[in-house]
């Protein structure tokens, strides 16, 4: 399987970064905007307004989503927010060839349906081959060609390996996996836990508290993942622990920045406006609902969801977590 012609739907920061990475890998790349006007503006500027300071590589074609842009492709990457993925799949579905890989690049759980990203793809484009790309990577760094390693998962190992080779280069290294659900769980859960880490930073609780929060947060992620059938090596790998470490430690993360704003005393509405689109804010409630249904205890994620919906203050959430009964580690 040779995936030489690849389209990326979504002209935001991550879509633009991936387009640059794939162009540097020698692929034929089309960056597809979801409306004609924005696609034309980006084509003229050779830059995305959502990724300041990064020019689009010369080899990247920019077009609006449509049959002309998508029908001749070997694979499609969907670089849109998780709550917009369903609309994006429905938009591209008519142009998809049978068994064409459609790779979700969003980290989240769909609200209402509780579906993971590959489940949304399978439902809306049943003839496609769903896959997921996730891992510790900031768009600005990938766009500039700084080294990053991620995980690409598909049910069929040969497809996953071929896609990883097609997307990979010396500075962008996808490791392939067949543990689709494990990769999706890591990406979704770490965003919620990064909000909690940001709250710790915004409240000035110190480095020791930050280390404890990240570690206990990973214990929650691991318990949840194992309950839903994820492999331990996936959860401790790039798309799980690796992404959690990155997202819980840098203001480049919108989720971490959202948490900082909450920790500093802003309301959820104010914090969301300041941080921009933070996937964890949309995923938190769905994650907790799934965990409860599976009988998995996730006190940190539960606290974040309660803070975001306004049913619990930051101070009360911290007190609740610090006064939980002492127990064995695990």
Briefly say what this structure is.
The protein is α/β, with parallel strands linked by helices and 330 residues long.
Mean pLDDT: 95
Number of helices: 16
The tally of beta strands, per DSSP, is 8
Largest sheet: number of strands, sense, barrel closure: 8 strands, mixed
Q: Looking at the structure, what is the overall shape?
A: globular
Beta-strand residue percentage: 5-15%
Low-confidence stretches: none
Given helix and strand content, the structural type is: alpha/beta
Strand sequence of the main sheet, in spatial order? 3-2-1-4-5-6-7-8
Order of helices and strands: EHEHEHEHEHEHEHEHHHHHHHHH
> Please, what is the oligomeric state?
single chain
Estimated radius of gyration: 19 Å
Helical fraction equals 40-55%
Straight-line N-to-C gap = 43 Å
Write up this protein.
With 330 residues, the protein is an alpha/beta fold. The radius of gyration is 19 Å and the shape is globular. Strand 1 (5-9), helix 1 and strand 2 form a beta-alpha-beta unit. It has an 8-stranded mixed sheet, with helices on both faces. The chain has 16 helices and 8 strands. The protein has helices at 13-24, 36-45, 67-70, 85-92, 117-124, 139-143, 157-167, 180-202, 207-227, 232-235, 238-247, 254-263, 268-275, 279-294, 299-308, 314-322, and strands at 5-9, 28-33, 60-64, 75-78, 101-104, 129-134, 148-154, 172-177.
